[in-house]
Amino acid sequence: MEIIIQPTQQAATEVAARLIATLLRDKPDAVLGLATGSTPLSLYQTLISMELDWSKVKTFNLDEYIGLPREHSQSYHSFMWENLFRHINIRKENIHIPDGNAKDIPRICEEYEKMIAASGGIDLQVLGIGTDGHIGFNEHTSSLASRTRIKTLTKRTRMDNARFFGSEEAVPFHVITMGIGTIMEARTNLLLAFGANKAAAIAEAVEGPIASSNPASVLQMHRSVKVCLDDPAASKLQRAEYFRWVYDNKPDWQTF
Ligand code: GLP
């Protein structure tokens, strides 16, 4: 894992945006895995302002609520169109988001996995992290080998996401999410976390044991993970000074 700690959310976001911009310039038909939530918002704004060419890019989103109409303001379909897709030149047929209104959920989950494989696999997966360490909607005790499937949200995640829905009762109980096994197959994972409320989950994920009690910790087993943090999200890392030192002393050819 490469831990990149920056003084502000904006500075950490810019590092992440540069990584994605470099990928899209080197590989115009790259396959990106995308995330929702408040964390990637500034990343999407920065990418939009870079005016990159998305005409050949394919995207796969991590997750979606089950039973929310697509047009609902809090569906991840709406989120992605509002915050990224309508601002860039991506082709509609290259966008993939799990269908939370499908009649046969297991079948579309299987198809989602097949579509990812048929596209050549995900080059770079953007991830946020829940306050309990979940990635996508893989709640604690998710199988570390899981594939795209239905999950039931924990009480804590429903409470965390109530701020978007106005009340906890309005947050759906069920979701479709890429599995942890699916995420682990992305060639690179780019995890972003900002703010002190993510500090405990980040410390466990980066420095704790690999355990399904903090699903993000499995990323320690991945060969290419970058973790972009602001100072508050890094505040519980015991080795923060070491991570800063490594980043500040990267050889020129390794900087981005
Ligand atoms: C949801 C999403 C995750 C996201 C998490 C954190 O559970 N499914 O992908 O990482 O929320 O959200 P936020 O970035 O708003 O803190």
Written overview of the protein:
The chain has one domain: 3-Layer(aba) Sandwich (Rossmann fold). 32% of the residues lie in helices and 16% in strands. It is built from eight helices and ten strands. The strands form two sheets. A seven-stranded parallel beta sheet has the order 1-10-9-6-2-3-5, with helices on both faces. Helix 1 packs across helix 2 (41-49). The longest helix is centred in the N-terminal third of the chain and has 18 residues, at 9-26. The mean pLDDT is 97.
Describe this protein with a few key phrases.
seven-stranded parallel β-sheet, 10 strands, 16% strand, binds 2-amino-2-deoxy-6-O-phosphono-alpha-D-glucopyranose, Rossmann fold, alpha/beta
Give the total of domains: 1
Largest sheet: 7 strands, parallel
What is the overall shape?
Answer: globular
What are the bound molecules?
2-amino-2-deoxy-6-O-phosphono-alpha-D-glucopyranose
Low-pLDDT sequence parts: none
Q: Which CATH class applies here?
A: Alpha Beta
Number of alpha- plus pi-helical segments = 8
Helix/strand-derived category reads: alpha/beta
CA radius of gyration? 17 Å
- At the fold tier of CATH, the topology name is Rossmann fold
Give the overall pLDDT as a whole number: 97
The total of beta strands comes to: 10
Strand order of the largest sheet: 1-10-9-6-2-3-5
Oligomer: single chain
Proper CATH architecture: 3-Layer(aba) Sandwich
How much strand content do the residues show? 15-25%
Measured between the Cα atoms of the first and last residue, the distance is: 16 Å
Proportion of residues in helical segments: 25-40%
The string of secondary-structure elements, in order, is: EHEHEEHEHEEHEHEHEH
